[in-house]
Amino acid sequence: MANPKSPISIFLFFLFSFYSFISTSLGKSTIEPCSVFDSCNAMVGYSLYTDLKVAEVANLFQVDPVALLIANAIDISYPDLENHILPSKLFLKVPISCSCKDGIRKSFTRYKTRPSDTLGSIADGVFSGLVSADQIRDANGITDPTVLDVGLSLAVPLPCTCFNSTDNLLPAVYLSYVVRQGDTVSGVAARYYTTVTDIMTVNAMGSMTVKPGDIISIPLPACASSFPRYSSDFGLIVPNGTYAITASHCVQCSCGPGNLNLYCTPASLAVSCSSMQCKNSNLMLGNVTSQPSSAGCNVTSCSYGGYVNGTIITM
Questions:
Q1: Mind listing the pLDDT tens digit for each residue in 268-299?
Q2: For residue 7, which phi and psi values (nearest 5 degrees)?
Q3: How far apart are CA 204 and CA 310, in angstroms?
Q4: Rounded distance, CA 71 to CA 77, Å?
Q5: 124 or 18: which leads in pLDDT
């Protein structure tokens, strides 16, 4: 991220402020202007409005159920995993893809209306304030929001930011967070292992004042992969203290805590996977050996190098 006092940062401050001014959100939402049709890994903070099955939450945001659980360090060894019940009010970090649409960063999911739904109840209840009724109305060209047919498939825009997946030039994943009663910027910063300065810079904040319903972007320190561009998991970034499952659920890549180097091993769910043994060695993925030598120690490791055409690349 640019120096807060640099001309680029000053320009971004006014640009973010302008986009925030024209935003149709009922509360403040951080807007990231963009000009290229790329995407990044991001997250939204979500509080369950009722008891829901894992599959129901995953379907709500159109994400992989396993990815949802591992992003929150929830045990994935449950039998009948998708039907496992998550309790009401549980706070989850939901992994999403953040794209460039109409000049700003955003993500979309879809929601099928049910009896008694209103745009307000969908926005504030089902999606816990991540979107406003006006944003849903505008995204779907609804002229009469008082009439919603049951079974109507609505596009639901979700807030997200990328900022080049870095914070102060270090890897980061950005969490879009709805401010709750009692939250402070310093408290949120401490909770997510970032700083007040970083949160204020990212959100172009002139003061530390936030109110319930505001949506702020939080940079989560992360481990970045160096997989080749042609691998299907190119650009994988994992927030600190969590892990990701990749290579068709065959490989688990962990980050930290306290160490921002990505470490990959065979996943516990691995069933039908390609070989995870490094060529010309007896080492399996994640193994490390050391042998004494005249110069000290000879250390050899078997590392993960990406998933290419159904094959796990080891180094």
A1: 877 788 889 998 889 999 899 988 877 778 88
A2: -55, -35
A3: 43
A4: 15
A5: 124
